[in-house]
Design goal:
The complex is a heterodimer.
Chain A: E1 6-10, H1 13-29, H2 34-55, E2 58-67, E3 70-79, H3 87-90, H4 104-111, E4 114-120, E5 124-132
Antiparallel strand pairs in A: 1-2, 2-3, 3-5, 4-5
Helix pairs in contact in A: 1-2, 2-4
Chain B: E1 5-8, E2 11-15, H1 22-38, E3 43-47, H2 56-71, E4 75-79, H3 83-92, E5 100-102, H4 105-119
Parallel strand pairs in B: 2-3, 3-4, 4-5
Antiparallel strand pairs in B: 1-2
Classes of the chains: A alpha+beta, B alpha/beta.
Chain lengths: ~130, ~120
């Protein structure tokens, strides 16, 4: 486990707030601009919300991302929920199955620089995003 | 974290002080929809200056709030959306269609005053 890794358990709506505040703090220490801080916090909020909505429980992992001289923040949202039957479709503009709140995953993808999703029916979903400075 | 709701003349002013959970937001919506009747208010201002994140749930709930208040015969104006929050909302694809917004509390009050004057002949 790398240093500077923060793990936030997600199980309720107040955990969503905690996760995005921790993410904002970490990004702020990394020296992101205030606009980027807001984009990062908003992305974390949406990812944590997806966990609560679809899997009830999971976790958000925050870490410092490094690649050559580049630094940034990495966010992994992981749950052991039902998984997404059709990932392609879930990434389509405006698609959301819970009548909800979602611009969902397509919205999150627009807020970050890198976006990866692995989902398996019955065993859960992991979304990994990165934002570079 | 409950949001204080102040009554000023014909208006209710809800001034959000800190980050809100989903439950807090729903509670604010319900409290305002009820109190518009209790105080026979004609306008509602929700000041979101202190919100550093407005995600899909927050935007949806504020939109619902404004539409419910309109059904109760009053006008809502959302004030204080920060520039970076506006940027993030647009990036995320979130809109507050049909909801009035103003720069800050002062502009919000001026907006409601104008709106009340314009409709006073018909009410």
């Amino acid at each position: 486990m790398k240093s500077h890794e923060i793990r936030v358990q997600i199980g309720s709506d107040s955990d969503i707030v905690t996760a995005r505040q921790k993410g904002r703090e970490m990004a702020s220490q990394l020296g992101f601009t205030i606009t980027d801080l807001t984009l990062i916090a908003t992305a974390i909020s949406e990812l944590a919300r997806n966990i609560v909505l679809y899997a009830q429980q999971g976790e958000i992992l925050l870490s410092i991302a490094e690649e050559g001289a580049r630094r940034g923040i990495g966010v992994i949202a992981r749950d052991a929920g039902p998984g997404i039957p059709d990932v392609e479709r879930a990434l389509q503009e405006g698609f959301s199955t819970s009548r909800s709140f979602g611009m969902g995953l397509s919205g999150v993808r627009r807020l970050v620089d890198e976006f990866k999703i692995v989902s398996e029916l019955g065993s859960g979903t992991t979304v990994s995003v990165k934002k570079w400075k | 974290m409950q949001v204080p709701i102040l009554k000023q003349r014909d208006y209710l002013i809800a001034s959000i002080q800190a980050a809100l959970t989903d439950a807090d937001l729903l509670q604010l919506r319900d409290a305002l929809v009820t109190r518009v009747g209790t105080f026979r208010s004609r306008g509602v201002i929700v000041d979101v200056t202190a919100l550093d994140v407005m995600d899909s749930f927050a935007v949806r709930t504020l939109g619902d709030l404004a539409h419910m208040i309109r059904l109760r015969g009053a006008e809502t104006v959302i004030v204080g959306i920060q520039p970076e929050v506006a940027f993030a909302m647009v990036q995320l694809g979130l809109t507050l269609t049909g909801v009035s917004t103003a720069l800050d509390l002062e502009e919000g009050l001026a907006f409601l005053d104008k709106r009340m004057k314009a409709t006073s002949g018909t009410r």
